């Protein structure tokens, strides 16, 4: 799965991105910080 620079910028600006996965699941992506500069808390992955 590829995320375009525009979509990545939207995530970093605080928007949530919803991804359709094989017409079966929806995956929601968001950044824990608006700048996207900090790592997620331990135990969580993006």
Description:
The chain has 46 residues and is an alpha+beta fold. The protein has a domain at 6-32. 17% of the residues lie in helices and 22% in strands. The protein contains one helix and two strands, in the order H-E-E. The protein has one helix spanning 5-12; strands at 17-21, 25-29. A two-stranded antiparallel sheet has the order 1-2. Strand 1 and strand 2 (25-29) form a beta hairpin. It is globular. The model has no long low-confidence stretch (mean pLDDT 79).
* CA radius of gyration: 11 Å
| Rounded mean pLDDT score | 79
**End-to-end span in angstroms?**
13 Å
Query: How many helix segments?
Result: 1
**What low-confidence regions span 5 or more consecutive residues with pLDDT below 50?**
none
Strand content: 15-25%
Query: What is the SS-derived class?
Result: alpha+beta
SSE run: HEE
Q: What strand order characterises the main sheet?
A: 1-2
Percent of residues in helices comes to 10-25%
Main sheet characteristics: 2 strands, antiparallel
Q: What overall geometry do the principal axes of the alpha carbons give?
A: globular
List keywords for this structure.
alpha+beta, 46 residues, 2 strands, two-stranded antiparallel ribbon, 17% helix, single chain
Layout of helices and strands:
Layout: H1 5-12, E1 17-21, E2 25-29
Antiparallel strand pairs: 1-2
Summarize the structure.
This protein has 46 residues and is an alpha+beta fold. It has one helix at 5-12; strands at residues 17-21, 25-29.
